[in-house]
Amino acid sequence: MKSDKKENERALSEVKKIKTRTFYSILGLFLLIVIGIGGKVYMDNKRFNDEMVNVVKSGQAKQIIEDELKELDSKALTPEGIIRSYEIDYESIEHNPMGSIMFDVIINNDKELLVSYYLNKRTGVLKNGGLDLSEKLSDMLRN
Fold first, then answer.
1. Which of 72, 117, 120, 112 is nearest to 92 (CA)?
2. How far out from the chain centre does Cα 117 lie?
3. How many CB atoms sit inside 10 A of residue 52's CB?
4. Angle at Cα 74 formed by Cα 71 and Cα 80, nearest 5°?
5. Inter-residue contact 123 to 57 (CB < 8 Å)
6. Which domain holds residue 29?
7. Which of 28, 64, 76, 115 keeps 20 to 30 A from 13, CA to CA?
8. Of 94, 106, 93, 102, which is closest to residue 131 (Cα–Cα)?
């Protein structure tokens, strides 16, 4: 009778071990899948962000920025102009839900003088989709 009881306890112990191993195996597999999917999403977002940065760094984008600045200030990028220099704020690059790339351009190294650009490439050619001026820059250009 004692041996039957010990055998039952041993059998229950083995079943418990099998259930525990199965649970941890399933949990580990689930975690691997979640980490894999998360890594894929992260890499896709990083690749997309790198592509946007490359577009903004391109010669076409630089030409668009300079042409627009010269439309705002005919003497732009010269010592006589209100807009003497510009710098692209690469940290501000974002994807617009409408398909454009949004980013800020800092004028004359003054973070209060901003031009926000919207570039798009819907027709295969990079074009300016619009721009917004900071209030301070707008006032300076009006006067």
1. 117
2. 16
3. 17
4. 140
5. no
6. 1-57
7. 28
8. 102
The more confidently predicted of residues 8 and 68 is 68
Percentage of residues of the chain with pLDDT beyond 70: 99
pLDDT at 2: 65
| Per-residue confidence band for 7, with pLDDT thresholds at 50, 70 and 90 | confident
Alpha helices in the chain (DSSP H): 2-57, 59-72, 135-142
Q: Specify the 3-state DSSP secondary structure of 117.
A: strand
Domain final residue pick, 22, 41, 57: 57
Residue that is written with structure tokens 């042409």 in the block: 67
Strands 86-95 and 101-107: antiparallel
Beta-sheet strand order (sheet of 110-120)? 86-95, 101-107, 110-120, 127-133
Mean pLDDT value of segment 27-31: 96
Which run of H or E residues covers position 77?
Answer: none
- Of the two residues 31 and 141, the one the predictor is more confident about is 31
pLDDT recorded at residue 15: 84
Structural domains counted in the chain: 2
